[in-house]
Fold this protein.
Amino acid sequence: MKRVLSQQIFCSPDIILRNTVIEQNNQNKITNLIDLENQIAETSNTMYYDGIISSEIKSMAINMNQNIIYDLFDYQYVNLRNNIIDSKIIKQSKPLIIDFNSIDIDVINMILKEKKQLLSNLTIYEIIAGCTFYPGLVLDSTKGIKLAEVTRLILWKKINSALDDKTSYFQIYSV
């Protein structure tokens, strides 16, 4: 059993929790969401992380089949690893799916750093939703952080450049 807490918990595009502990069992199933505002005492054995916690990143390219290709017509799909994109991503009316063509944290961090300018028009919440929540809807898998979901937790932490704050980007870690 593990308990984690961060400034923000990204459950879905519409639900971002604050002051909430996520409790998971050894199979990564979310067994409890504890609102600290309603607690008399702090929860024991809770690890605090600086950043935003989300559910795991999913790759459409890894799970691609004919049904999924058809389902993607309802989304703005961007594959950051395979496509050569040289301009900023402009959000359209369709929900955005960002695909790193990988679920490996080191690969994703490399792509996040290399493509930070392409993502600069998006909020961190749009980026998180684009690579966790919306792919989960299409793949019919984990759809965010909620009770009984099984997911690896990801910490999104802002990294500032030593040169200037305008070149900051987010890096992810497994929680």
